[in-house]
């Protein structure tokens, strides 16, 4: 959803007598806009098969007297989330422990800004005392590492955001 459309929807809720608006879009994601007498909230929520363990909805309250500044901040946060949706999510192929390096003293397989190609090892996932190489399926540039080193991961959990070539 484009930010201009989101602004229109927020304005619609503000000016109408409805108290909330819920929109479902793109792979089980939805946006909820709620209005009360003293504030309204924009609440992006990830549900369904795209839901990630540990992901929580963000509620962005905006009080009437400070609406322009905080509303702009809320719109910027939503804009960042929408931009992230455009990036490819390289996901965990199994449950286990995520490692960015081949060994404790070694440099990480990939860093933010590195160009990757299909078949390139990007991390390890340890499962049942076995270290499994996770290889890229795409060609692109690493834009964000989403998991801390030595953290547990779930099957299908996004590990990296990649801007495709």
Task: Describe the structure in brief.
The protein is an alpha+beta fold and about 160 residues long. It has helices at about 5-15, 65-85; strands at about 20-25, 30-35, 40-45, 60-65, 90, 95-100, 115, 120-125, 130-135, 140-145, 150-155, 160-165.
Describe this structure in words.
Helix content is 19%, strand content 39%. It has helices at residues 3-15, 67-85; strands at residues 20-25, 29-35, 39-46, 60-63, 88-91, 96-99, 115-116, 121-127, 130-135, 140-145, 151-153, 158-164. The strands form 3 sheets. A 4-stranded antiparallel beta sheet has the order 1-2-3-4, covered by helices on one side. A 4-stranded antiparallel beta sheet has the order 5-12-10-7, with no helix packed on it. A 4-stranded antiparallel beta sheet has the order 9-8-6-11, with no helix packed on it. The longest helix has 19 residues, at 67-85. The chain is elongated and about 60 Å long. Mean pLDDT is 78; it is low at 48-59 and 62-66.
């Amino acid at each position: 959803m484009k930010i201009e459309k989101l602004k229109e929807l927020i304005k619609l809720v503000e000016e109408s007598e409805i108290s909330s608006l819920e929109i479902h879009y793109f792979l089980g994601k939805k946006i909820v806009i709620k209005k009360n007498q003293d504030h309204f909230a924009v609440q992006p929520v990830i549900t369904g098969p795209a839901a990630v363990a540990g992901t929580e909805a963000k509620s962005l309250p905006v009080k009437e007297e400070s609406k322009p500044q905080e509303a702009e901040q809320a719109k910027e946060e939503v804009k960042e989330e929408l931009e992230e949706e455009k990036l490819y999510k390289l996901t965990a192929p199994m449950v286990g422990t995520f490692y960015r390096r081949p060994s404790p003293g070694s440099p990480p397989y990939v860093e933010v800004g590195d160009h990757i190609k299909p078949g390139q090892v990007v991390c390890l996932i340890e499962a049942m005392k076995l270290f499994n190489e996770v290889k890229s399926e795409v060609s692109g540039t690493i834009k964000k590492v989403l998991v801390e080193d030595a953290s547990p991961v779930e099957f299908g959990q996004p590990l990296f955001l990649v801007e495709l070539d």
